[in-house]
Amino acid sequence: MQRTKINTVLKLTASSRLITVKGWVRTFRSNRFIALNDGSTIHNLQIVVDFEKMPAEILKRITTGACISVLGHLANSQGQGQAVELVAQNIEILGDSDPEKFPLQPKKHSLEFLRENAHLRFRTNTFGAIFRVRNVLAFGIHEFFQEKGFVYIHSPIITSSDAEGAGETFRVTNFDLNNLPKDELGRVDFQQDFFGKNTNLTVSGQLEAELGAMAFSEVYTFGPTFRAENSNTTRHLAEFWMIEPEMAFYNLNDNMDLAEEMLKYVIKNALTKCADDIEFLSKRLLEEEQQKPLAERSEMNLVEKLNFCLNNSFERITYTQAIEILKESNHNKKKKFQYLVNEWGVDLQSEHERYLVEKHFKKPVILTDYPKKIKAFYMRQNDDGQTVRAMDILFPGIGEIVGGSQREERLEKLTQRMNEMQIPTHELNWYLDTRRFGTCEHAGFGLGFERLVLFVTGMTNIRDVIPFARTPKNCEF
Ligand code: 4AD
Ligand code: MG
After folding, report:
1. pLDDT tens sequence across 416-443
2. Whole-angstrom Cα distance, residue 460 to residue 352?
3. pLDDT by residue (tens digit) across 338-393?
4. 10 Å Cβ neighbour count for 26?
5. Which residues are near ligand 1 (CB < 6 Å)?
6. Which of 392, 427, 461 is nearest to 110 (CA)?
7. pLDDT, tens digit, 9 for 90 and up, residues 319-353
8. CA-CA distance, 280 to 126, in Å (whole number)?
């Protein structure tokens, strides 16, 4: 008999019709009530067992973590918490689980413990909810762009360029590292390597996306991104997923409008399609916050926070204005920032970004026109000679969630900036060709997918919103 998924079963009414469900036992109480979950919903299906009729052999194998198949019919539930329950006629054990050894006990585990047991954490309420939300967010992003006619481009994962120029790349090689071929000068001879040159994992698909935009007008990428940043923070991963739209005929304002529209679309989509999961995560967050001192608790619960973000325009200010606000802030004057803001030109730290969003404006903020010396080579230069058409979107609890810019479409200005920054132009000849042949005004941005998932799930550590986190000194599973 075909299996019915639990999310479907829970919408049915009582009937004598027999159905089959399959899933993993969360708990088995009093030899009578099984809480079964198959991952299709946060809710468990209650299964009622008549222990006098069920063989003892089977009963003792119904343990937390075991995988079972149940044939039965739906009855109105006498107990609280569910409208219907499945009255078991037959139970088959598909996979046993030793209750003494199964790491997930029917109790609350710390997130740290679950990170170490990430191979099993999908089977908990919290991680079930997080990864269903992640799934819906990913699909929502595709829906948003597809509805607008953007073309999805698969940018390469192995490349020879460092698009962000930050030198934080992971090398790709098939050399025998104990026996590296050298050239006459004693340097590693990459000509003998697999690709005949030095290659690395991509830090961004933007440069290739720009090539696509110069043909399809509007494109996006959505792929894995790798950065060997040695920053062990709750916001950084060595392997993360990034969405990078790139649009011909867009200036910085069009770019900001699109980013804001996209964020609101995907958040709203998740709120609608994952209402139960987000409700659960909202309660989880409330419980977690109750451990904190009053002053540190947020004023809004998760659902309110998401709705607040949907219902307000993001504040748009320049970097220069932001520096003024930060310099004049009581926080700065009372030296509450770890990095004090004294002069124009400094890079903003996450504490500054969060101050602007959480304390000053109390809503998402888009900062524009950053000093050129703290931004990448490809951003369009402003006439002041000091700033570029950059934009970063800052979110409460997260800091930077999107980084983007209008691109420098003028060949001369671009090569001049590359020379100043010592980026070899001959290696990026293919990129410069877009400026040689039919260049035009264009812009794009990158959304850090896990930072979006963090925001929507209310989780606080980025390791908890990607199935298997890769961070410094950690590559398990
Ligand atoms: O600001 P970034 O470095 O911008 C770019 O890579 C551009 N090429 C994007 C573009 O214009 N097409 O990165 C974009 C976003 C950040 O705002 C952040 O959300 C996320 O990617 N991000 C990370 N997320 C997790 N772990 C890391 N190590 C991240 N580094 C950046
Ligand atoms: Mg950035």
Report:
1. 999 999 999 999 999 999 999 999 999 9
2. 18
3. 999 999 999 999 999 999 999 999 999 999 999 999 999 999 999 999 999 999 99
4. 18
5. 163-164, 204, 206, 227, 229, 236-237, 240, 242, 244, 400-405, 444-446, 448, 450-451
6. 461
7. 999 999 999 999 999 999 999 999 999 999 999 99
8. 8
Q: How far apart are CA 241 and CA 225, in angstroms?
A: 6
Using CA positions, which residue lies closest to atom 19 of ligand 1? 448
Q: What is the pTM of this model?
A: 0.96
Task: Please identify every residue whose CB atom is under 5 Å from ligand 2, which is an ion.
Answer: 403
- Tokens 């198959």 correspond to 38
Residue pLDDT, tens place only, 116-128: 999 999 999 999 9
Closest ligand 1 atom to residue 231 Cα is 28
User: Which amino acid residue places its CA nearest to atom 20 of ligand 1?
Assistant: 448
